[in-house]
Amino acid sequence: MALTLYVGNKNYSSWSMRPWVLLKEAGIEFTERMVRFDSFDAQSAFKRTVAAVNPVGKVPVLVDDEVAGGLVVWDTLAICEYVAEKFPEHQLWPRDRAARARARSVCAEMHAGFSALRTHFPMNIEASLPEVGQRVLHDQADVRQDVARFVEMWSGLLADHGGPLLFGRFSIADAYFAPVCMRFNTYGVPVPERIGEYIDALFGLPGVAQWVEAARAEGDFLSFEEPYRRER
Asked: Are residues 79 and 121 in the same domain?
């Protein structure tokens, strides 16, 4: 296959999940290269493996061997944009120009923001930690603000585009927010019924379901990714 996507642990790697789900859900063939986390030290097996492909030493990384010498694209948003341009027939951004601009805006907002939720609710698909979620939401006003923004954002998009996904049919925006839905599920974040229906719709996508199944079967326990548990 012309495309190779390097990803980290499916249970933990939220950024890897986004382009993987995008490619799977669009039916675009690619070879997956899993590089399991061991540590992020410069001499770790993970860093040495990924740095040989991507100078930043992070996943995800997409390699397109159809381009002479092999084109390397890193950073999740750059990968999604590249895939959308390479496969325009899949319409991975909304067709309407205004909707497309809005989709890009919310993806950029996700890409650059929500640091409180990222910090206090790290992605951990296999875990069920509603008691942690309740405590964090009680103690951390900035996490509550992040959750409220997601609810506001998604509610507006679903109302304007009719659901069941953010822009009606699957798009890069849904791939971008899939890891947030994983977090909401893990930490038992309470949401309005409309948002719960959106989360259920995302979990029902074949690409998301495949990622979740693999994450739950992974079996790795990495203490530096597990602030709330001492064992699996």
From this structure: no
Instruction: Summarize pLDDT for 14-30 with one digit per residue, the tens.
Output: 999 999 999 999 999 99
Residue span of the structural domain in which 35 resides = 3-90
End-to-end CA distance of the chain: 35
Give the phi and the psi of residue 161 in degrees, each rounded to 5.
-115, 0
Is 164 in a helix, a strand, or coil? coil
Instruction: Write down the pLDDT at residue 195.
Output: 98
Pairing of strands 71-74, 31-34: unpaired
As given in the structure block, the two tokens for residue 67 are: 């381009």
Q: For the sheet containing 3-7, what is the strand order?
A: 31-34, 3-7, 61-64, 71-74
Q: Are residues 77 and 129 in the same domain?
A: no
Tokens of 222: 């990495």
Task: Determine the Cα–Cα distance for residues 136 and 139; give it in Å rounded to an integer.
Answer: 5
Tokens representing 88 are: 């325009």
Contacts of residue 211, defined as CB under 8 A and 6 or more positions apart, other chains included, come to: 10, 17, 20, 21, 24, 178
- Mean pLDDT over 196-219 rounds to 98
Kind of pairing between the strands at 71-74 and 61-64: antiparallel
- Sign, CA dihedral 34-36-41-45, equals negative
